[in-house]
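Section handout, structural biology tutorial.
Before the tutorial, make sure you can parse a SMILES string by hand: atoms, branches in parentheses, ring closures as digits. In the record below the ligand is flavin-adenine dinucleotide, and the chain has 343 residues. In the tutorial you will relate the predicted structure tokens back to the input. Do not try to memorize them.
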Amino acid sequence: MESILCLIFAEEGKSIGRASLEAVYLAKSVQNNVTGASLALGVVGSDLGSSIAQLKGCGASRIYKVEGEDFEEPIYATDAAAAESICRAAEASIVIATGNSRVNRVLPGVAQRLGGRIDTHVCDVDWEDSTLRVHRWYYRQRMRAVMSRVHRPWFISSDPGSFAAWSGEVDSNEPEIIDLGKPQTSQRTRVEGFQKPVSGGQTIRPEAELLLVAGAGWTKTQPDGQIKVKDAEKLILGFLEKTNASLGGSKSMVDLSSEGQEVLSFMTHLNQIGQTGSSPRHPKGLATCCHGEEPHVVGWRFINERRVINSDPNCGWVQGKADVVYIQDAFAVMAKVNELLAR
Ligand SMILES: Cc1cc2nc3c(=O)[nH]c(=O)nc-3n(C[C@H](O)[C@H](O)[C@H](O)COP(=O)(O)OP(=O)(O)OC[C@H]3O[C@@H](n4cnc5c(N)ncnc54)[C@H](O)[C@@H]3O)c2cc1C
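Predicted structure of the complex:
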């Protein structure tokens, strides 16, 4: 019989974010489809009162908690010790967590300590005769693998945004709350604060509703003969600030700096989407001044609703890839959009 554990690190030590609710949803689906499986939650944080109250009704029979100041910040030593102690106490055969940066940092190490195996970047699951199978992409989303494991414990971390967030269906059975106290750690690191990169602000926001893609067109000579990079910066940053959107860039855009051209100061290679970049998951996408095949075909793969602003009606990669195309000057459109958002 499978003993399923859903592992959660409370955000800022206290609250339950969307990523954690996705893990709960996935763990519950697995429990419902694997015959005789039990479900427990493991929660780590500094002040878990409201988090545990929020999770109580999810149908888990037990909630294991590791609580204390040491578990507010994501530090490998403390997080790994907490996760290890929960997995051991729960005697989990399957451990499920959403692979945000905190989980990705510790979960493989915890799997190693417990003699387990781990599959990361899981984007879907299914069942064959009640046997759990996980899906993940390989080779930049070109090949999708479906696999199962007999080895236990089996650690599974899913890609954020791949599953629905658990909500609502409250189970009237109260889970047993088990406080595991403070596990032994060898913590030497202390978090003193956060610093933004000098290039200006955090523009990559995996949980944003919207992905704004900026192509190299923003830096090209415009019909009036001018290059308007400073205007482009203002428009893009203004839009990001007002919408909390995440920023993606085409390869041509992020490569410009190495070609000595004037560039958007906040755009780095980390922003690149496409075949040699990332394929982020967001409900909506807006591509501006972008023509390339790779951003539209691969980079946008997991964007549900796609819109484009391009001044060229013959932009071939946009056709058939976007839901809506505005044939317009992006400088004018984005200025108007920002003006409307400011109201
Ligand atoms: C092996 C390989 C891997 C690659 N991997 C990637 C990858 O991962 N990601 C990636 O992005 N590319 C990748 N590329 C490059 C890709 O093929 C394209 O060259 C690149 O994406 C083009 O970038 P772009 O669309 O921003 O620029 P451009 O092709 O220069 O397009 C600029 C667009 O801006 C429009 N424009 C200009 N001014 C305005 C305005 N005022 N208003 C509205 N529209 C305007 C123009 O009409 C044009 O369509 C790869 C290429 C190769 C060979």
